[in-house]
Amino acid sequence: MSCSRRQGYCESTACCRGGPHPSRTPAVFQSLLDELVTALDLSAAQAANLQVRGNDSLASCFPVSDLATAAIGVAGLAAADLLAEGAPGLPVQVDRHLAAAWFKTSLRSLGWELPAVWDAITGDYRTRDGWLRLHANAPHHRERALAVLGCGNSQAAVAEAMADWPGEALETAIVAAGGCAARLRTQAEWQAHPQGQAVRAESLIAQEWTAIAIARDWRPDPQRPLQGIRILDLTRILAGPIATRLLAGLGAEVLRIDPPTGTNRPRHPR
User: Fold this and answer.
1) Is 83 exposed, middle or buried (0-12, 13-18, 19+ CB in 10 A)?
2) Positive or negative torsion for Cα 92, 250, 224, 106
3) Computed from CA positions of residues 95, 97, 102, 108, in that sequence, does the dihedral angle turn out positive or negative?
């Protein structure tokens, strides 16, 4: 194992299933990979077909690049399993740099400027007893938060109003009013919190199967495994649209529906 300091983190090189996986936290990567493989009912033999190349990591206190690489790798394993049709799985290779870029804006504008990612008052604010994260990108979230705080639409006004509130009480008030806010907690505090415990109890991947008619002559295409599959996308914000984008990349025909005045239009191209 070789170790070097990069972006304030330890970058480690080690071996994993199917080949090298240069990760700064190999044990965390393997844990994430194992959990995803189990959730999708893939076998250890199938997981052994995954190879990871590169050693890039996004700067974060959480293993974001490990998660990105594991998630995209398992999606590839599932596609390979579909193509194999019961035969030994095909090899899957994931570039860690590209996987990390998928989790971060990789577009660079030429001759024009990208719109701001965050609303002007979205951010972390000090409360009477700690810090609170306010999310105001959606207009209705911003309006509800400002109504609770009783202040103007500026960072200075919001900061002044929040300073007198206890964090827990403010979080409860904004969420109850239909806004979006969260008191900043330590990992231990979150694990002890009822919501943290509820999230932990949920399945990593929820699946619900319904009986549908499938063309008997349909077979996955080696170049476009999901070609011929139609998907109706009614999801919002980020997770759902990114998932259906991946399915489209694998060949599925995705029809996305948004209301003309909806709040899900991206602030920058994805």
Assistant:
1) middle
2) negative
3) negative
Reported as a single tens digit per residue, the pLDDT across 29-80 is 999 999 999 999 898 888 999 999 988 888 888 899 999 999 999 999 999 9
**Got the DSSP string for 149-164?**
HT--SSHHHHHHHHTT
Q: How far apart are CA 154 and CA 146, in angstroms?
A: 10
**Predicted confidence (pLDDT) per residue in 190-226, tens digit:** 999 999 999 999 988 888 877 776 667 788 888 899 9
Q: What are phi and psi of 5, to 5 degrees?
A: -85, 130
Q: Please tell me the pTM assigned to this model.
A: 0.77
Q: Look up residue 253 and give its amino acid.
A: E
How far apart, in whole angstroms, are the C-alpha atoms of residue 137 and residue 130?
23
Token pair in block for residue 132: 């609170």
